[in-house]
């Protein structure tokens, strides 16, 4: 087994200084169940660098105040930092204007916001939404809820079996005039497929279809440029890209945000209120009722700075190299079923072992200090289609190393051995 | 790999029950079927029971799929509960629940027999729900008017429904 590992390609060429980068992440330096932690659950959430933690501590220790409504010094500092994060997020996405950045508590909230405001105003009974069969529940259930309320119909672009690649041959028949919205994940959190977002957005634009990209798995791993992609809405979570939990971004073209009704009512989202009337604030504040997650935005700012210092092109290359290493290693172990499009994949690998349930895989790996995800990864309809209840997933980030992947493969081989004794 | 806890969790008997589950398959003369779902992992246990005249478990089988702990627990539970009166089944359910979750951990009740092998699951908090899924279904079956082991609220876009629409603008005025 070890020989098989040594047959794998040499360590990544992305040239990342692992030792220096890893030193920035306090959580990586611990033992779990008596073994050095190998954190391979990055698609669920990333670890946080010291720089992000320091930004949060600095805000709470020095600048803590409410934003937009104070005259005093601390309120000025908090407002400047909060709005600075918005400008930073616009630059991170190459958005034309910071007014197009709405802070949310994550991808899920961003999608719900679009469904409940744009969707309820602009989609009527008989209109259709095109989704992808490998949609995360967060980009599925909000549309189901809208459909149940408004009579909008959902339809699905199928994916081809275990590869997770969209069957684009079906697009001609699916993209009927009644399709008004096309939503899809940039990268699948289960299959590691990278969808041709730019091509799909161009096709949608030509047909007058609005697009929403779920960038939860891409924003922190590769360059995401909303102008280049040509989408209408794009959402991501801060916590998956080194930022605090409860932070996130909804980006939308300004004319869409202008035309959308507000979502939640409260302070900050209004320009004036009388006893029996209210006027909405301008964008993006119209969508940020109440005191926002100020610290979250400030932490996210530090996270985006960190990512761009490392370089998202290098991160993308590194993640993919680790995924290919894991993919090849799992293949050569045998007794595995692997999901996703072969070697041309994003930085994660979902798999099942013959005769060993994913939960058992994850429990045994955890006892060896390897953190995996086991279950349906909030992707139950896809798992049902594949005929499995659950899968195990290893997902990588730039602070993971080839040596960790090799150790993971060793642990998987041990797990197979462990369960063979039960099967005789 | 040094793994005392693991060896305890995955003892040979448990692995044997999970790979060759007893009472696995449909039960044609079942009087009720209770579905146990674990939505976080997708494990499913469908418990089929022929309820006897006294409300006891005359016959029992299960279908579905899940991890080794879930399958072994269902297999051992059905083996143990088959032919038991309503009161005896209730008592087993109580003893198992106590073994898995009571604080501090009491010595497992002798009545549980080989089910006592599952006591080690306590050391793996994330796996407790795997071991108890089939038992939640049993609880449902022992109730007078069982429907399912979990909540059923949700939406079904295939069902006929009423559509509502709303107006929105640059603000609101209640006139």
| CATH-derived topology of chain B | Sufe protein. Chain: A
The pLDDT mean of chain A sits at: 93
Instruction: Give the low-confidence spans of chain B.
Output: 146-151
H/I helix tally of chain B: 5
What fraction of residues of chain A sit in β-strands? 15-25%
Q: What is the CATH architecture descriptor of the largest domain in chain A?
A: 3-Layer(aba) Sandwich
Structural class of chain A: alpha/beta
Q: What is the CATH C level class of the largest domain in chain A, in words?
A: Alpha Beta
Protein chains sharing the most extensive interface: A-B, 42 and 43 residues
Overall, the morphology of chain B is globular
Write down how many β-strands of chain B occur, each being a DSSP E stretch of 2 or more residues: 4
| Helicity of chain A, as a percent range | 40-55%
Strand order of the largest sheet of chain B: 1-2-3
The counted number of beta strands of chain A is 19
> How many independent structural domains of chain A?
2
Label the CATH architecture of chain B: Alpha-Beta Complex
Mean pLDDT of chain B: 85
Describe the structure.
The complex is a heterodimer of chains A (424) and B (175). Chain A is of the alpha/beta class and 424 residues long. Chain A folds into two domains: 144 residues, Alpha-Beta Complex (Aspartate Aminotransferase, domain 1), CATH 3.90.1150.10; 258 residues, Aspartate Aminotransferase, domain 2 (3-Layer(aba) Sandwich). Helices cover 41% and strands 18% of the residues of chain A. In chain A, strand 1 and strand 2 form a beta hairpin. In chain A, helix 3 runs antiparallel to helix 11. Helices cover 34% and strands 16% of the residues of chain B. Chain B is α+β, with helices and mostly antiparallel strands and 175 residues long. The termini of chain B are far apart. Chain B has five helices and four strands, in the order H-H-E-E-E-H-H-H-E. In chain B, strand 2 and strand 3 form a beta hairpin. In chain B, strands 1-2-3 form a three-stranded antiparallel beta sheet, with helices on one face. About 3% of the residues of chain B have low confidence. At the A-B interface, helix 5, helix 6, strand 14, helix 13 and helix 15 of A face helix 1, helix 2, helix 3 and strand 4 of B.
